[in-house]
Amino acid sequence: MIIKVDCVKGSIHDFKLLKKSKLKLSRIIIILADLGYLGIKQLFKNAMVPYKASKNKPLTKEEKRYNRQLTQKRIIVENKIRECKIFRIVKDVYRGKHKNYGLTWNLVAGLVNFKVSTKHFNFSY
């Protein structure tokens, strides 16, 4: 599956970009989100968001267990994001042409995926 990277100038939250994109996803795709995406269930019924505790309403044991299970599934994605950030395209100011930013991100994602796909092979001679 090919996913197009949507790029904008300035700092805009990912969830705001997602709402603006009006992305259509299949119902069989389950979205695992964090607390930064609290309103995502109105857009996608198949989204899973952790429960949020407040000072007046602490989480129950079931809610904590659900959050822990969701976190265990999401950690895989968070680790991939970290690997992309090693390329510093997110952390530093991008000094290339803005029109090439999406291409650069796709190349970084491709390199990270290639690294994962070749992880179990021994290329030493």
Summarize it.
It is built from 4 helices and 2 strands. The protein is mainly alpha-helical and 125 residues long.
Structural class: mainly alpha
| Number of helical regions | 4
Give a quick account of the main beta sheet: strands, pairing sense, barrel closure: 2 strands, parallel
Element-by-element helix/strand order: HEHEHH
Mean pLDDT: 81
**Approximate strand percentage:** under 5%
Give the count of structural domains: 2
- Report the uncertain regions: none
Overall geometric form:
globular
The strands making up the biggest β-sheet line up spatially as 1-2
Give the total of beta strands.
2
Roughly how many Å apart are the termini?
A: 33 Å
Percentage of residues in helical conformation: 40-55%
Task: Characterize the quaternary organization of these chains.
Answer: single chain
Gyration radius, rounded: 18 Å
How would you characterize the overall build of this protein?
The chain has a two-stranded parallel ribbon with strand order 1-2. Helix 2 links the parallel strand 1 and strand 2. The chain is mostly helical and 125 residues long. Helix content is 43%, strand content 3%. The protein starts with 13 loop residues before the first helix and ends in an 8-residue tail after the last helix. The model has no long low-confidence stretch (mean pLDDT 81). It contains 4 helices and 2 strands. The protein folds into 2 domains: 15-49, no CATH class; 51-117.
